[in-house]
Write a structure and sequence with these properties.
The complex is a heterodimer.
Chain A (H helix, E strand, L loop, with lengths): L2 E4 L13 E4 L4 H11 L3 H5 E3 L2 E2 L3 E5 L2 E2 L14 E6 L5
Parallel strand pairs in A: 1-7
Antiparallel strand pairs in A: 1-2, 3-4, 5-6, 5-7
Chain B lengths: L1 H9 L3 H6 L1 H4 L5 H10 L1 E5 L5 H11 L3 E5 L24 H12 L4 E5 L8 H5 L4 E4 L4 H13 L4 E7 L2 E7 L25 H19 L8 E6 L4 E6 L17
Parallel strand pairs in B: 1-2, 1-4, 2-3, 4-5
Antiparallel strand pairs in B: 5-6, 6-7, 7-8
Helix pairs in contact in B: 5-9
Classes of the chains: A alpha+beta, B alpha/beta.
Chain lengths: 90, 257
């Protein structure tokens, strides 16, 4: 059973409209690498540079914050990753 | 004399009993809860999209004192979401526009207005004497300024933010629960954000609900739980967050996790 990555609404334009993408990996970082391989435009949406997420991106694994060192967090088959964007508007 | 004055200030009048009858009927609130709301002093930072519903519902609910802080003036492009401001208010200070409506809604609530920009230098003074701070700002730097001030002064902080059809809310009890800064990853570029008014209406209502629950001591607060609202799907998602011992705002505070 793969890891399911939930794509933020504003990023679905980069995943052919998919809201959930199935990937394989042992860490969040590996899963996101897989995601980027499937949908290259997600790299710019998520990463400031290699192995450095944009400050606006929040990662949750199984509904819990993966902060800090999100990319190193271990995951296993069946886990759910949510990619959320920090909001500032009021 | 002092005791008598205190009791008089605290107890409900017959008019207040009638005005708040439907919420006093709620078993968890009752007359005792309504008296707690009457004693509460709340600062609302920002009287825009989120601040409008927060101020409206806290005024309607009978919070004793509300202090509104906003330096801005009403513009036409505010009116799609900032429901306390109407066409005739364009050009007026937002706090004045808001006070006019709130006074018409509930004259028993003491409304204080501060038309100042929140800064490092004045933030502590502007929230002094308040029992709660509602974060209804429109930018992250000021949100962090308020967060730090709330933590330092141990004032509960009610966060809410919106973008497009999405919103989020989190309640922060300083020294006890995760704060806004606990997940800070670095500065985020400021931008003009898209928004439709129904979303800050939803998030502001949630923040006002949290404030009411906090003062009456009922229910389960949105602490250590980040609530995300997706208005397009009408889905609420909840994510667990926790205090960061390295947090530069609350890391050094003692308190239960």
């Amino acid at each position: 059973m793969p890891v399911r990555v939930h794509i933020h609404l504003t990023h679905r334009q980069f995943t052919d409209g998919l809201d959930v993408v199935a990937v394989e990996g042992n860490t969040v970082g590996e899963c996101l690498d897989q995601l980027v391989k499937q949908f290259p435009k997600m790299e710019q949406a998520l990463f400031a540079k290699k192995d450095k997420l944009l400050n606006i991106v929040e990662v949750y694994v199984n509904q819990s914050s993966a902060y800090p060192n999100e990319l190193a967090k271990p995951v296993k088959d069946g886990d759910e990753i949510h990619l959320i964007l920090m909001l500032a508007g009021g | 004399m002092w005791n008598g004055l205190y009791l008089g200030d605290r107890m409900l009048t017959s008019e207040e009993r009638e005005r708040y009858d439907r919420q006093i009927m709620i078993r968890e609130i009752g007359e005792a809860g309504q008296e707690k709301l009457k004693r509460a002093r709340v600062a609302i930072a920002g009287v825009g999209g989120i601040g409008s519903p927060v101020a409206l519902y806290l005024t309607a609910a009978g919070i004793g004192k509300i202090r509104m802080i906003d330096h801005d003036h009403v513009t036409l492009s505010n009116l799609n979401r900032q429901v306390l401001h109407w066409e005739d208010d364009i050009g007026k200070k937002k706090v004045d526009s808001a006070r006019t409506k709130l006074r018409q809604l509930n004259r028993a609530v003491e409304i204080e207005t501060i038309p100042e920009t929140l800064t490092e230098e004045n933030v502590s003074r502007l929230v002094e004497g308040c029992d709660a701070i509602v974060d209804a700002m429109d930018n992250l730097p000021t949100r962090y300024l308020l967060n730090r001030c709330a933590i330092k002064n141990r004032i509960p902080f009610f966060h809410g933010a919106v973008h497009g059809f999405e919103g989020r809310a989190l309640t922060i009890l300083p020294g006890k629960t995760a704060c806004l800064r606990c997940m800070f990853r670095g500065p985020v570029p400021q931008e003009k954000f898209p928004v439709i008014g129904v979303v800050p209406a939803m998030i502001g209502s949630i923040q006002a609900t949290e404030v009411i629950k906090y003062f009456t001591g009922i229910g389960e607060l949105l602490t250590n739980r980040l609530l995300i609202y997706d208005g397009l799907r009408v889905v609420f998602n909840e994510f667990a967050v926790k205090r960061n011992p390295e947090c530069d705002h609350c890391g050094s505070l003692s308190g239960e996790e």
